[in-house]
């Protein structure tokens, strides 16, 4: 089977080849030809497309594209390999210290508008569970040189005492210098004691802030509805003033863009702060009133076009107005991996990681989930607990769910760039994933053709 996709953009014509992941620019008649005829048809004798047939035959020979492959679905690891990985290669354990939070951000999945997701509660992880989680981590990560331990919530700074006790336990029983600590926080609970402790222990902080005050306070509010920007900004400035080196090396930003129209203001804000955005949610759902629940959820499912945002970014680069704030976010975006090649007859969607291996999420009660992005109310995302370890039966059951969609994958042109992950494993949303791949390819083409020199400098 020959897998490819043709598409038009800005009056130009392109072909994406699944086997090599190459994007080929076509001329109009070649585009019409490949959309009208089977390349393996030996009976194409019309003079109209004779030149085009030769054009594609040359491409097939020189660029190794449009190969007729008997694609087969194959999970990357055997059962024995899976067992070995989960016994020796857990990379990052994420501790849900609490499900409570002192904010009520309008787009947060914990709020009551998401009726199918867990809500805020007063649940706090007991220190006995934390110790078991740490034991589980170190007993199952012997192959990992640089181990990661992350504190999550809710708002983890509501449990600062637990953070200190966790590090105390690790230092007492696992004197391993190759540990990096991370935390995602709204920063509203920072004080001198907390800050000094973080600096002394080299804890990396991802601060949730959405930009300047008017933009940030649109969604990120306290329980009484008042904005949180002033206290977050004051605390950021305190870190920058009191510990400038720590600020430069250990502080990063997680942000939600209201829309692509706010990008330049947000980017300028973070650039002036000297901070980079490591994660940006470009879903526009937060621009709508959250009271309109049905429309809000529907908007979260729509494909958000990143093309304008990326174009703005590179326009600014080309004008020597470098928006460093989003550099790392764009540099490592999947859309820019233009030279990615597959060269295999086996296919497996590129979106999924190994569930619960890369980002092992431990809930307050000690249950182990495949990552922190899942809905804990869905049973198949639970793959064990810190008391008994990974339940391979549950894990294999989840993997078998993925194998069920394998028959679709082997005939899909988007398989090698498919962003579908385990969080949507039971949803038939393939058309949405294909739309995302197309959007990513269009953004890549636009940037690659107009700013190639700049890309090579990043």
Protein topology:
Layout: E1 4-9, E2 12-17, E3 23-26, H1 28-34, H2 50-62, E4 72-73, H3 79-88, E5 92-96, H4 127-139, E6 147-152, H5 160-173, E7 179-185, H6 192-200, E8 203-208, H7 213-219, H8 229-242, H9 244-250, E9 251-256, H10 263-273, E10 277-281, H11 293-301, H12 307-318, H13 327-331, E11 346-347, E12 360-362, E13 367-369, E14 382-385, E15 389-390, H14 392-403, H15 406-409, H16 430-450, H17 452-457
Parallel strand pairs: 4-11, 5-6, 5-12, 6-7, 7-8, 8-9, 9-10
Antiparallel strand pairs: 1-2, 2-3, 12-13, 13-14, 14-15
Give a written overview of the molecule.
The protein has a domain at 1-65. The chain is built from 17 helices and 15 strands. It has helices at 28-34, 50-62, 79-88, 127-139, 160-173, 192-200, 213-219, 229-242, 244-250, 263-273, 293-301, 307-318, 327-331, 392-403, 406-409, 430-450, 452-457, and strands at 4-9, 12-17, 23-26, 72-73, 92-96, 147-152, 179-185, 203-208, 251-256, 277-281, 346-347, 360-362, 367-369, 382-385, 389-390. The strands form 3 sheets. Strands 10-9-8-7-6-5-12-13-14-15 form a 10-stranded mixed β-sheet. A 3-stranded antiparallel β-sheet has the order 1-2-3. The longest helix has 21 residues, at 430-450.
């Amino acid at each position: 089977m020959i897998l490819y996709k043709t598409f038009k953009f800005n009056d130009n014509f392109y072909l994406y080849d699944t086997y090599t992941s190459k994007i080929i620019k076509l001329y109009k008649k070649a585009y019409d030809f490949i959309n009208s005829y089977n390349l393996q048809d030996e009976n194409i004798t019309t003079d109209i497309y004779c030149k085009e047939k030769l054009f594609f035959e040359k491409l097939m020979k020189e660029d190794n594209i449009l190969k007729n492959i008997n694609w087969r679905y194959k999970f990357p690891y055997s059962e024995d390999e899976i067992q070995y990985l989960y016994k020796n290669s857990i990379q990052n354990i994420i501790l849900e210290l609490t499900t409570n939070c002192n904010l009520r951000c309008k787009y947060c999945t914990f709020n009551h508008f998401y009726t199918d997701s867990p809500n805020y509660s007063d649940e706090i992880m007991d220190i006995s569970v934390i110790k078991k989680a740490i034991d589980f981590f170190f007993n199952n990560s012997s192959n990992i040189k640089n181990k990661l331990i992350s504190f999550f919530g809710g708002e983890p700074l509501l449990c600062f005492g637990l953070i200190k006790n966790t590090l105390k336990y690790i230092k007492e029983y696992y004197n391993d210098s190759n540990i990096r600590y991370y935390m995602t926080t709204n920063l509203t609970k920072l004080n001198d004691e907390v800050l000094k402790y973080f600096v002394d222990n080299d804890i990396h902080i991802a601060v949730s802030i959405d930009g300047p005050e008017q933009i940030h306070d649109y969604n990120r509010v306290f329980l009484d509805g008042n904005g949180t920007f002033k206290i977050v900004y004051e605390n950021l400035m305190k870190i920058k003033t009191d510990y400038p080196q720590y600020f430069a090396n250990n502080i990063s930003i997680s942000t939600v863009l209201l829309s692509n129209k706010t990008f330049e203001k947000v980017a300028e804000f973070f650039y002036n702060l000297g901070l980079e955005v490591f994660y940006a949610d470009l879903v526009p759902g937060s621009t709508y009133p959250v009271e309109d629940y049905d429309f809000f959820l529907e908007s979260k499912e729509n494909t958000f076009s990143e093309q304008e945002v990326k174009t703005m970014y590179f326009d600014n680069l080309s004008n020597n107005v470098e928006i460093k704030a989003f550099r790392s976010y764009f540099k490592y975006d999947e859309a820019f991996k233009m030279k990615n090649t597959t060269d295999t007859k086996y296919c497996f969607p590129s979106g999924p990681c190994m569930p619960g291996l890369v980002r092992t999420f431990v809930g307050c009660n000690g249950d182990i989930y495949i990552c922190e992005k899942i809905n804990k109310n869905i049973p198949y995302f639970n793959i064990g607990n810190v008391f008994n370890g990974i339940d391979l039966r549950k894990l294999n059951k989840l993997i078998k769910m993925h194998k069920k969609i394998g028959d679709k994958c082997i005939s899909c042109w988007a398989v090698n760039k498919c962003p579908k992950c385990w969080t949507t494993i039971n949803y038939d949303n393939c058309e949405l994933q294909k739309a995302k791949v197309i959007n990513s390819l269009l953004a890549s083409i636009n940037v690659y053709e107009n700013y190639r020199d700049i890309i090579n400098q990043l």
